[in-house]
Amino acid sequence: MDLVQMQKSLQDYTKSLFLEGILDSQFLQLQQLQDESNPDFVSQVVTLFFQDSDRILNDLSLSLGQQVVDFKKVDPHVHQLKGSSSSIGAQRVKNACVVFRNFCEQQNVEACHRCLQQVKQEYYLVRNRLETLFKLEQQIVASGGMIPAVELGF
Amino acid sequence: MTREELPNLAESKLTALVVDDNFVNQSIHQKLLARLGITNEVVCNGKEAVDAHCSGRNYDLILMDMDMPIMNGIQATKRLREMGIESKIAGVTTRANEGEKKEFMEAGLNDFQEKPLTISKLLSILHKFDFYVQT
Questions:
Q1: Are residues A80 and B22, on separate chains, in Cβ contact within 8 Å?
Q2: How many CA atoms lie within 13 A of B75 on its CB side?
Q3: DSSP code, position B93
Q4: How many Cβ contacts (< 8 angstroms) between chains A and B?
Q5: Whole-prediction pTM value?
Q6: Are residues A49 and A84 in contact, defined by beta-carbon separation less than 8 angstroms?
Q7: In chain B, residues 4-33 whose CB comes closer than 8 Å to chain A
Q8: Quick check: A85 and B64 in contact, CB under 8 A?
Q9: Which of A96, B60, B98, B128 is the most buried (most CB within 10 A)?
Q10: Is the predicted pLDDT of residue B76 greater than 60, yes or no?
Q11: How much is the mean pLDDT over chain B?
Protein backbone atom coordinates (compact mmCIF):
# COMPACT_ATOMS: atom_id res chain seq x y z
CA MET A 1 0.00 0.00 0.00
CA ASP A 2 1.49 3.38 -0.90
CA LEU A 3 1.65 6.33 1.48
CA VAL A 4 -1.38 8.15 0.09
CA GLN A 5 -3.48 5.00 0.39
CA MET A 6 -2.27 4.48 3.96
CA GLN A 7 -3.18 8.05 4.86
CA LYS A 8 -6.63 7.63 3.30
CA SER A 9 -7.13 4.35 5.19
CA LEU A 10 -6.21 6.05 8.44
CA GLN A 11 -8.63 8.92 7.82
CA ASP A 12 -11.45 6.51 6.94
CA TYR A 13 -10.68 4.32 9.94
CA THR A 14 -10.62 7.27 12.31
CA LYS A 15 -13.88 8.59 10.89
CA SER A 16 -15.52 5.22 11.43
CA LEU A 17 -14.64 5.35 15.14
CA PHE A 18 -16.58 8.61 15.45
CA LEU A 19 -19.49 7.42 13.30
CA GLU A 20 -19.85 4.29 15.42
CA GLY A 21 -19.85 6.41 18.58
CA ILE A 22 -16.74 4.70 19.91
CA LEU A 23 -14.96 8.06 20.14
CA ASP A 24 -16.35 11.55 20.64
CA SER A 25 -15.01 15.08 20.18
CA GLN A 26 -12.91 14.89 23.35
CA PHE A 27 -10.50 12.66 21.40
CA LEU A 28 -10.04 15.52 18.94
CA GLN A 29 -9.18 17.76 21.89
CA LEU A 30 -6.36 15.37 22.79
CA GLN A 31 -5.10 15.43 19.21
CA GLN A 32 -5.09 19.23 19.30
CA LEU A 33 -2.80 19.12 22.32
CA GLN A 34 -0.22 16.98 20.51
CA ASP A 35 2.66 18.97 19.05
CA GLU A 36 6.31 18.73 18.02
CA SER A 37 7.46 18.98 21.64
CA ASN A 38 5.29 15.99 22.57
CA PRO A 39 4.47 14.07 19.37
CA ASP A 40 3.29 10.98 21.26
CA PHE A 41 0.99 12.77 23.68
CA VAL A 42 -2.21 11.05 22.53
CA SER A 43 -0.78 7.55 22.65
CA GLN A 44 0.82 8.28 26.05
CA VAL A 45 -2.46 9.44 27.56
CA VAL A 46 -4.38 6.58 25.97
CA THR A 47 -1.82 4.11 27.34
CA LEU A 48 -2.38 5.62 30.80
CA PHE A 49 -6.10 5.12 30.26
CA PHE A 50 -5.53 1.45 29.34
CA GLN A 51 -3.39 0.86 32.44
CA ASP A 52 -5.87 2.65 34.68
CA SER A 53 -8.84 0.82 33.19
CA ASP A 54 -7.23 -2.61 33.50
CA ARG A 55 -6.67 -1.96 37.19
CA ILE A 56 -10.18 -0.60 37.77
CA LEU A 57 -11.89 -3.45 35.91
CA ASN A 58 -9.90 -5.95 37.93
CA ASP A 59 -10.90 -4.20 41.18
CA LEU A 60 -14.52 -4.12 40.05
CA SER A 61 -14.52 -7.84 39.29
CA LEU A 62 -13.14 -8.52 42.77
CA SER A 63 -15.59 -6.18 44.50
CA LEU A 64 -18.63 -7.55 42.69
CA GLY A 65 -17.42 -11.09 43.28
CA GLN A 66 -17.70 -10.73 47.07
CA GLN A 67 -20.51 -12.55 48.87
CA VAL A 68 -21.75 -9.24 50.21
CA VAL A 69 -21.12 -6.49 47.70
CA ASP A 70 -19.93 -3.22 49.21
CA PHE A 71 -21.29 -0.56 46.86
CA LYS A 72 -19.25 2.07 48.67
CA LYS A 73 -16.27 0.36 47.04
CA VAL A 74 -17.89 -0.35 43.67
CA ASP A 75 -19.27 3.10 42.92
CA PRO A 76 -16.00 5.08 43.23
CA HIS A 77 -14.32 2.67 40.80
CA VAL A 78 -17.07 3.15 38.25
CA HIS A 79 -16.90 6.91 38.79
CA GLN A 80 -13.14 6.85 38.13
CA LEU A 81 -13.58 4.84 34.94
CA LYS A 82 -16.37 7.13 33.79
CA GLY A 83 -14.09 10.11 34.38
CA SER A 84 -11.07 8.81 32.56
CA SER A 85 -13.04 7.36 29.64
CA SER A 86 -14.81 10.70 29.26
CA SER A 87 -11.48 12.52 29.32
CA ILE A 88 -10.07 10.57 26.39
CA GLY A 89 -13.29 10.55 24.41
CA ALA A 90 -14.16 6.86 24.85
CA GLN A 91 -17.85 7.65 24.57
CA ARG A 92 -19.36 4.18 24.70
CA VAL A 93 -17.29 3.21 27.74
CA LYS A 94 -18.42 6.42 29.46
CA ASN A 95 -22.07 5.77 28.61
CA ALA A 96 -21.83 2.20 29.90
CA CYS A 97 -20.39 3.58 33.15
CA VAL A 98 -23.32 6.00 33.50
CA VAL A 99 -25.76 3.07 33.35
CA PHE A 100 -23.56 1.10 35.73
CA ARG A 101 -23.59 3.92 38.31
CA ASN A 102 -27.38 4.07 38.20
CA PHE A 103 -27.57 0.41 39.17
CA CYS A 104 -24.92 0.94 41.86
CA GLU A 105 -27.20 3.57 43.36
CA GLN A 106 -30.02 1.06 43.36
CA GLN A 107 -27.64 -1.55 44.81
CA ASN A 108 -28.83 -4.01 42.19
CA VAL A 109 -26.11 -6.68 42.22
CA GLU A 110 -27.38 -8.66 39.26
CA ALA A 111 -27.71 -5.61 37.05
CA CYS A 112 -24.25 -4.45 38.13
CA HIS A 113 -22.78 -7.75 37.01
CA ARG A 114 -24.38 -7.23 33.60
CA CYS A 115 -23.13 -3.66 33.51
CA LEU A 116 -19.61 -4.77 34.28
CA GLN A 117 -19.72 -7.12 31.31
CA GLN A 118 -21.01 -4.33 29.11
CA VAL A 119 -18.30 -1.93 30.29
CA LYS A 120 -15.64 -4.57 29.66
CA GLN A 121 -17.01 -5.20 26.19
CA GLU A 122 -16.96 -1.52 25.29
CA TYR A 123 -13.52 -1.07 26.81
CA TYR A 124 -11.98 -3.98 24.89
CA LEU A 125 -13.59 -2.64 21.72
CA VAL A 126 -12.16 0.88 22.08
CA ARG A 127 -8.82 -0.53 23.16
CA ASN A 128 -8.64 -2.77 20.12
CA ARG A 129 -9.67 0.04 17.75
CA LEU A 130 -7.23 2.58 19.22
CA GLU A 131 -4.36 0.09 19.09
CA THR A 132 -5.14 -0.41 15.41
CA LEU A 133 -5.29 3.36 14.91
CA PHE A 134 -1.88 3.85 16.48
CA LYS A 135 -0.41 1.01 14.38
CA LEU A 136 -1.70 2.70 11.21
CA GLU A 137 -0.15 5.99 12.33
CA GLN A 138 3.17 4.29 13.04
CA GLN A 139 3.17 2.73 9.57
CA ILE A 140 2.65 6.14 7.98
CA VAL A 141 5.41 7.75 10.05
CA ALA A 142 7.75 4.83 9.30
CA SER A 143 7.11 5.40 5.58
CA GLY A 144 8.16 9.01 5.98
CA GLY A 145 4.65 10.45 5.82
CA MET A 146 2.65 12.85 7.97
CA ILE A 147 -0.45 11.91 9.93
CA PRO A 148 -3.36 13.61 8.14
CA ALA A 149 -5.81 15.71 10.10
CA VAL A 150 -9.20 14.11 10.58
CA GLU A 151 -11.98 15.87 8.71
CA LEU A 152 -15.19 14.64 10.15
CA GLY A 153 -17.54 16.66 7.96
CA PHE A 154 -20.60 16.00 10.06
CA MET B 1 -9.62 27.29 17.61
CA THR B 2 -6.75 25.74 15.66
CA ARG B 3 -3.49 24.70 17.20
CA GLU B 4 -1.79 27.72 15.70
CA GLU B 5 -4.34 30.13 17.23
CA LEU B 6 -3.87 29.02 20.84
CA PRO B 7 -2.75 31.96 22.98
CA ASN B 8 0.64 31.76 24.65
CA LEU B 9 0.43 33.13 28.17
CA ALA B 10 4.07 32.38 29.08
CA GLU B 11 4.83 36.10 29.43
CA SER B 12 2.20 36.36 32.15
CA LYS B 13 4.26 33.90 34.21
CA LEU B 14 1.12 32.29 35.55
CA THR B 15 1.40 29.26 37.81
CA ALA B 16 -1.18 26.56 38.36
CA LEU B 17 -1.79 23.54 40.55
CA VAL B 18 -3.69 20.51 39.24
CA VAL B 19 -5.42 18.63 42.06
CA ASP B 20 -6.75 15.30 40.78
CA ASP B 21 -6.34 11.66 41.77
CA ASN B 22 -6.82 10.33 38.24
CA PHE B 23 -3.59 9.98 36.23
CA VAL B 24 -5.34 10.38 32.89
CA ASN B 25 -6.90 13.67 33.98
CA GLN B 26 -3.66 14.85 35.56
CA SER B 27 -1.85 14.28 32.29
CA ILE B 28 -4.47 16.05 30.20
CA HIS B 29 -4.90 19.02 32.52
CA GLN B 30 -1.16 19.53 32.78
CA LYS B 31 -0.83 19.39 29.01
CA LEU B 32 -3.69 21.87 28.54
CA LEU B 33 -1.98 24.31 30.88
CA ALA B 34 1.44 23.77 29.33
CA ARG B 35 0.06 24.39 25.82
CA LEU B 36 -1.08 27.78 26.99
CA GLY B 37 2.32 28.51 28.52
CA ILE B 38 1.22 28.11 32.14
CA THR B 39 3.79 26.53 34.48
CA ASN B 40 2.10 23.90 36.57
CA GLU B 41 2.44 21.21 39.21
CA VAL B 42 0.21 18.30 40.13
CA VAL B 43 -0.90 16.69 43.38
CA CYS B 44 -3.13 13.66 43.91
CA ASN B 45 -5.63 14.80 46.51
CA GLY B 46 -6.86 17.70 48.59
CA LYS B 47 -4.49 17.02 51.48
CA GLU B 48 -1.47 17.24 49.19
CA ALA B 49 -2.83 20.53 47.85
CA VAL B 50 -3.14 21.89 51.40
CA ASP B 51 0.33 20.58 52.31
CA ALA B 52 1.81 22.27 49.23
CA HIS B 53 0.46 25.60 50.46
CA CYS B 54 1.59 24.93 54.03
CA SER B 55 5.10 24.46 52.70
CA GLY B 56 4.97 27.95 51.28
CA ARG B 57 4.07 27.28 47.66
CA ASN B 58 1.49 29.50 46.02
CA TYR B 59 -0.29 29.44 42.68
CA ASP B 60 -2.32 31.84 40.58
CA LEU B 61 -4.79 29.12 39.62
CA ILE B 62 -5.89 25.84 41.17
CA LEU B 63 -7.83 23.26 39.13
CA MET B 64 -9.60 21.28 41.83
CA ASP B 65 -11.26 17.91 41.27
CA MET B 66 -14.14 17.06 43.59
CA ASP B 67 -13.92 13.33 44.30
CA MET B 68 -10.54 12.41 45.73
CA PRO B 69 -9.40 10.10 48.51
CA ILE B 70 -8.05 11.32 51.87
CA MET B 71 -9.36 14.88 51.37
CA ASN B 72 -11.87 15.71 48.63
CA GLY B 73 -12.15 18.94 46.66
CA ILE B 74 -14.84 20.49 48.84
CA GLN B 75 -12.86 19.89 52.04
CA ALA B 76 -9.63 21.10 50.43
CA THR B 77 -11.21 24.26 49.05
CA LYS B 78 -12.71 25.12 52.46
CA ARG B 79 -9.37 24.47 54.14
CA LEU B 80 -7.43 26.60 51.69
CA ARG B 81 -9.84 29.51 52.14
CA GLU B 82 -9.60 29.14 55.93
CA MET B 83 -5.83 29.38 55.54
CA GLY B 84 -6.32 32.68 53.72
CA ILE B 85 -5.32 31.37 50.30
CA GLU B 86 -6.72 33.78 47.73
CA SER B 87 -5.71 31.91 44.58
CA LYS B 88 -8.39 31.48 41.97
CA ILE B 89 -9.84 28.00 42.41
CA ALA B 90 -11.82 26.38 39.60
CA GLY B 91 -13.72 23.22 40.43
CA VAL B 92 -13.43 20.67 37.65
CA THR B 93 -15.62 17.62 38.08
CA THR B 94 -17.89 15.18 36.31
CA ARG B 95 -20.49 15.71 39.01
CA ALA B 96 -22.85 18.25 37.60
CA ASN B 97 -26.15 18.10 39.44
CA GLU B 98 -27.16 21.45 40.90
CA GLY B 99 -26.90 20.36 44.53
CA GLU B 100 -23.36 19.06 44.19
CA LYS B 101 -22.29 22.10 42.17
CA LYS B 102 -23.77 24.44 44.80
CA GLU B 103 -21.98 22.64 47.62
CA PHE B 104 -18.68 22.84 45.77
CA MET B 105 -19.14 26.54 44.89
CA GLU B 106 -20.06 27.37 48.48
CA ALA B 107 -16.83 25.79 49.67
CA GLY B 108 -15.05 28.75 48.09
CA LEU B 109 -14.66 28.20 44.37
CA ASN B 110 -14.32 31.08 41.94
CA ASP B 111 -15.56 29.05 38.98
CA PHE B 112 -16.82 25.61 38.06
CA GLN B 113 -16.40 23.61 34.87
CA GLU B 114 -17.74 20.20 34.03
CA LYS B 115 -15.22 17.60 32.95
CA PRO B 116 -13.82 16.70 30.54
CA LEU B 117 -11.76 19.85 30.46
CA THR B 118 -11.14 21.26 27.01
CA ILE B 119 -9.07 24.13 25.67
CA SER B 120 -12.11 26.37 25.38
CA LYS B 121 -13.28 25.57 28.92
CA LEU B 122 -9.82 26.36 30.28
CA LEU B 123 -9.73 29.62 28.32
CA SER B 124 -13.15 30.45 29.72
CA ILE B 125 -11.77 29.94 33.25
CA LEU B 126 -8.73 32.10 32.50
CA HIS B 127 -10.89 34.79 30.91
CA LYS B 128 -13.21 34.89 33.92
CA PHE B 129 -10.21 35.42 36.18
CA ASP B 130 -8.78 38.12 33.90
CA PHE B 131 -5.73 35.97 33.18
CA TYR B 132 -6.55 36.00 29.48
CA VAL B 133 -8.10 38.71 27.37
CA GLN B 134 -9.58 37.57 24.09
CA THR B 135 -8.47 39.67 21.11
A1: yes
A2: 12
A3: E
A4: 56
A5: 0.90
A6: yes
A7: 22-25, 27-28, 31-32
A8: no
A9: A96
A10: yes
A11: 92
